[in-house]
Amino acid sequence: MTNELVYGAYILIWPAITLVVLGVICGAVARDVRKAKKADEDLI
Fold it and tell me: Is residue 12 part of a domain?
């Protein structure tokens, strides 16, 4: 019983971690876009 709960929690935590990492990456890209637009520079 406890192994099933541990395995279930382990499997379910990865989508949450992935969403957090994706949010950090998207936030950083958005910040870079705003900074480049403010400085009138190309992003790449």
Answer: yes
